[in-house]
Amino acid sequence: MAKQGTLLVVDDNRNILTSLQYLLVDYFGQILTLDSPVTIPTVLAQNGVDIVLLDMNFSSGINNGNEGLYWLKEIRRLRPQAAVVLFTAYADIDLAVRGIKDGAADFIVKPWNNDKLIQTLLDVYRKVCNGRKEKKRAMLVSEGNDTTMYWGNSAAIRPLRALVEKVSTTDANILITGENGTGKDMLAREIHRLSNRKDGPMVVVDMGAITESLFESELFGHVKGSFTDAHADRIGRFEAADGGTLFLDEIANLPYYLQAKLLTAIQKRSFIKVGSNLPQPTNIRLICATNRDLDEMVRKGEFREDLLYRINTIHLHIPSLRERKEDILPLARMFLERYAKQYGRTSGTFAPDAAARLLAYPWYGNIRELQHTIEKAVILADDGELRAESLQLADMAERENASGTEEKTEMAFHTLDEMERTMIQQAIGQCDGNLSQAAAKLGVTRQTLYNKMKRYGL
C-alpha cells in the first residue's frame, strides 16, 4: 500500500520508539518520535501531524497517568484535526477509557500485538481523512455544467489558452484579470482541473462577500471560545484547501488594512487560527481574480505592492467578448442547447436576424450577459427558432447613445430592474470599478451594491 500521513510517537522508552519506527515505516509517509512530551507544541507547529501515538506515563509523571491526559488535552487544543491514540500498560486501561471520553480516538495496550497496532493506527488515519473530506465538502466548488470552460477559437483567446496549458501544472501563484462576466472563475476552475492538484479540493472565497469583522475567521478558522459565537472549532478556507487550490475572487475588494494579514499567510505558508497562538502549515496553490487595475490601485495607495508581487507570479488576462466576436455564436449555441435541455424546450436554432443581432450587440456584460440573455430567450420563446425580438436586446445604436449621455433615465426601460441594473453599471463605470465609490454615489452600502451586482450578473 502507498505510504501516507504523518505519525508522531511520544514515549520515554527509546527502544520502543526504535521498534515502532521499524514496524511502521512501510505504512506512514513520515514518522516522528519524541522521548519527552515537552516539545510536542513545537513539533505540532512545524509539521502537519495526522496521528499522535501518546504514552500515558512518563518518567517525570504527574500522578500516575495524569500527565498523559494533560498532553491529550493540549494536543486536542493545539491541533484539533489530529487524532490521538493512547499507548498504555494493561493496568491502566481504566485511564485509557477516561482518555477516550476526553477525545482520544482509540488506545493500544502494552505489550502490543503488531498486527493489531498497525490496523488500529490505519483505521484511525482513515477516519481522520474521511472527517477532513466531510468538512471540506461544504466549501468545495460544485462541478456542474455551469462551470464548463469554453475556450473558443478566436485569435484573441488562443494565446491565453496556450499559456494556461503551460502554467497549470506548476504551483505558481496566478492572477486572473478581465472585465466582469468574462469567466475568470471558470478559468480558475480550468487551471485547477489541469493541475497536479486536480484530485485535491478547490475552495472559492468571494472576497467581496466576506464581512470584514469575520475575515480572519473565514480564511484561517477559529478555536472554540475565541469569541462570543465561537461555540465550536471551525476550519477556515486555507485549511479546507490544503493539498488543493484556493481561489480568491474579487481580491481588489479586500480592505487595505486586512491585506497585510493575507500577505503574511502567503509568505509564511502558514496561518494562525483566531484564538490560537500556534502557526499551522498550509499547502495550497493560490489563484486570485479581479476586474480592477491593481497597478493603478497600488499607485493610489489602495493595494499593497508587496501583496501584488506575491499573487502575480503569472498574470492571465481574459479578453472581453467584444474582442473575440468569432466566439459569440458558438457560445450562444452552447447556452441555447443547455437551457433548452434544462427547461424542457425543443433545442432550436437562431434565426438569421437573431444571429445578426447577437454579433452586433456590444456585450458590455460579456459572457455572463450573453448567458443570461439566452436563458431568458429560451424561457420566453414559443418555438424552436429564436428570432431577434426574442432576445430582447436594445439596438446597439440606442445602447451606445445611452452610454454617452448622463440622461439614461430617458431610455425606454421595460422594468424597474432594468433601470436599476443600468444605473449600477453607469455608477461603476464612472468610478472606474471602485465599488466603495460607486456605492457612495448610489447611496447604498458596499455590501448592498455587491449583492445587487450578483443579482444582475454584473
From TrEMBL:
PROSITE patterns recorded: RESPONSE_REGULATORY, SIGMA54_INTERACT_2, SIGMA54_INTERACT_4
Domain of life assignment: Bacteria
Residues annotated with 4-aspartylphosphate modification: D55
SMART domains linked: AAA (SM00382), REC (SM00448)
Keyword Phosphoprotein on entry: yes
UniProt keyword terms in alphabetical order: ATP-binding, Nucleotide-binding, Phosphoprotein, Transcription, Transcription regulation
Alphabetized InterPro entries for the sequence: AAA+_ATPase, AAA_lid_NorR, CheY-like_superfamily, Homeodomain-like_sf, HTH_Fis, P-loop_NTPase, Sig_transdc_resp-reg_receiver, Sigma_54_int
Residue intervals of the Response regulatory domain: 6-125
CDD domains, per the entry: AAA (cd00009), REC (cd00156)
This protein's name: Sigma-54 dependent transcriptional regulator
Species in which this protein is naturally found: Bacteroides gallinaceum
